[in-house]
Amino acid sequence: MTLVRYNPNESALTRRACMRTTDPTGRWTTALLLAAAVTIAVPPATWADPPPWAPAHGWRKKHDPFYVGYSGHKWPDDYGIVSGRCKREAIGAVLGGAVGAAVGSQVGKGQGKAAAVLVGGVVGAVIGAKIGREMDQEDRACFGHALELAKDRQTVTWSNPHGVTYTVTPLRGFTHEGRQCREYDTVVTVGGAKEKVRGKACQVGEGEWRTL
């Protein structure tokens, strides 16, 4: 800072004007101090929960061990859905010996259940005749969990021990009679034959999906 010689004959106004002229860094010093104060006062950006209008299915908070389903239900495991390949063996381990209609009651309802489930027919007539039976419990759980956690246009695939390979691709969400629904493409491959079916399924309970 440049020293200003005091002159008793100068007015106070003149001295203040002189100081502003001879101390050009003063205002910059003040501005820098104010900027530093603002920087300290503003907290760093943090990740927040998805807004209510955003699709949250498959989303997982950094410190939350659960995966958020399509309607907000929390699941303890994604069974590989988020990465695009359903882990049939892992789902089979939590399903145990449930068969048929018992799969829906054991798997798809309540916060304590382990996986979602699909109820209803999926495959077309051609592939259905080749398979010769309904989808097993692991197939239905993989299908239901894909509808719960996969994003739109994300493909999930798996194969079962009977030589059948499934791929499921949710396309869009919509509501039907007040229920949350999704349209999907599924491709079923068995014995060299492949069939693509476009279908729709709606939630009929916590984690339980039924085809339309």
Automatic annotation (TrEMBL):
Superkingdom classification of source: Bacteria
Domain Glycine zipper span(s) in chain numbering: 91-138
UniProt xrefs under InterPro entries: Anti_2, Gly-zipper
Protein's name in the database: Glycine zipper 2TM domain-containing protein
Domain Surface antigen: 151-210
Xref: Pfam families: 17kDa_Anti_2, Gly-zipper_Omp
Biological source species: Pelomicrobium methylotrophicum
